[in-house]
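Case study 2.
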Amino acid sequence: MDSSPSTSRSPASEEADRERAKTCEKKNEGLGWMEWMRGWLYLAYEMFFQRITASHLPNPMPLPHLHEVTCVITGCTSGIGLQIARQLAESGAHVVMAVRNTKAAHELSQKWQSEWSGMGLPLNVEVMELDLLSLESVVRFTEAWNARSAPLHVLINNAGIFSIGEPQKFSKNGYEEHLQVNHLAPALLSLLLLPSLIRVLRVELLI
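Prediction:
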């Protein structure tokens, strides 16, 4: 005769388990909303704090003449990156717009040239394709740039993404998109451009 204990459960126990599962689900939903709200509150605080701390600064801040200075800037078709690229270009720098949307970058470059016309030398703006969601694109960009054997004075890793409340997405390289765009791709870009960045130091030492 089988003396093993019975595994059957009473209806009351099953109902209690279902209630516990529902309670856990509601708690998880509540925590999700709390994380969402905390993210937006943090963003609002950062923006407000930056406005206060930067309120005394002249707008725009004057820049020195930057002729013969080459700058690569990612994510410069909108927001802060756009303003950085334009200010550097108007100060005489050779600005390389490293962007995914090259059409938008070319349109911006033409607009800047038109608005700058008659105020000095033509702006030295170049557009190159770079998609941080593709590590292969980062490698292609750096290979093309390093092949020029030209010095690179400034690299501004401005591009980034910040998605709140959206489903988690992964790049074709298998990494979570925030991790790749905000961390992995900029790190790879910086490392692979080191030969061009170091070349500036070598030239200065020779001079």
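The helical segments are 11-53, 79-90, 102-116, 135-146, 177-192, 194-206.
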